[in-house]
Design a protein that fits this description.
By secondary structure, the chain is an alpha/beta fold. It is built from 9 helices and 8 strands. The protein has an 8-stranded mixed beta sheet with strand order 1-2-4-3-5-6-7-8, with helices on both faces. α2 packs across α9 and α3 packs parallel to α5. The longest helix has 44 residues.
Length: 309
């Protein structure tokens, strides 16, 4: 009888302790999110905007249009007060600046590459990026597009007459070492600059150029006219993803073969044999159109700016 009573009391105690444990744990479980929420609130309250070091942003006018311009100075710019630096001009400003700034930070800061001023030209303020870049980077008018096209001539004039003089006035620039960098439609625009004003830049890094635009109008102009151009002095790097071809491209664009045809056309110019026109084509393994540019950027700039051993 006593054993039975002791057993009953033991079960009752165990049940009470279990119930107490559940209650305590439940209360604590409610406190955990509350504590975390308080901690997160403190973290967010102390948050600050992250900026790219040594980078300033400006607004430059092209008649009624305003464009954002970002300029990043080299690490040793302030200390080397007499040194003049090459400049890398980039289209698709915000995207290109983030990619190129990150990719070149270590090699330039550690003197593996020559330091350079980075200048990223953005889109027209107040417009959607797509409408600005499609209008500004295309060299011919294609009526099949809903958005405006064919104002590359005006955008080239803006870069030549407004952007470059501004940079050269504000900073210590080596005017003999200007590099153009563009990707996709920006690469198409760079090819247009090379054809129309080849001496404006001494170097070109052209990523995945959209030579398919307007039924390959610009590519055909190159094939027909490039050999007739006078002697050229430039370095041209072309990067293209291995998968920038059907079935991986929109509208079955043959971007790899277009880039190869473009390269072969450039290579046929007499300046190649003279050694004043230097070319490099990189087909990037396993890369599609969305992936190729970061590799193009660092390989192209390394080819141009890597210090000799």
């Amino acid at each position: 009888m006593m054993n039975t009573l002791y057993h009953f009391v033991g079960l009752l105690c165990c049940g009470y302790l279990s119930l107490y444990s559940l209650v305590v744990n439940a209360e604590n479980s409610h406190n955990v999110p509350s504590q975390l929420a308080s901690q997160w609130a403190e973290v967010y309250a102390s948050a600050a905007v992250v900026n790219i070091p040594r980078t300033q942003q400006f607004t430059l006018k092209d008649d009624s249009r305003d464009y954002q311009l970002m300029v990043k100075l080299p690490k040793n710019y302030q200390q080397n007060s007499t040194h003049h630096y090459p400049v890398i001009y980039m289209t698709d400003g915000m995207y290109s600046m983030q990619v190129v700034s990150g990719a070149t930070r270590f090699p330039m800061n550690s003197n593996v590459m020559h330091q350079a001023i980075l200048v990223a030209i953005g889109y027209q303020k107040g417009s959607k990026g797509a409408s600005s870049r499609i209008r500004d980077y295309t060299p011919s008018h294609d009526s099949s597009w809903k958005l405006n096209t064919g104002e590359a001539k005006r955008h080239l004039r803006f870069i030549r007459d407004t952007v470059m003089p501004f940079v050269e006035h504000q900073y210590r620039v080596d005017t003999q070492q200007n590099t153009f960098m563009g990707n996709s439609l920006g690469g198409l625009f760079g090819a247009y600059v090379l054809l129309e004003q080849p001496t404006l830049f001494s170097n070109y890094v052209l990523g995945s150029p959209s030579l398919w635009f307007d039924n390959k109008h610009l590519l055909q102009r190159f094939i027909q006219n490039f050999n007739q151009m006078q002697a050229l002095s430039a370095k041209v790097f072309i990067g293209i993803g291995e998968l920038e071809r059907p079935p991986y491209t929109h509208n079955k664009h043959q971007m790899v073969s277009d880039a190869q045809a473009f390269y072969q056309t450039l290579h046929s110019h007499p300046s190649v044999n003279a050694g004043t026109l230097q070319l490099k084509l990189l087909v990037i393994p396993e890369a599609d159109h969305s992936m190729a540019f970061p590799t193009t950027a660092i390989h192209g700039l390394s080819w141009l700016f890597k210090r000799a051993d």
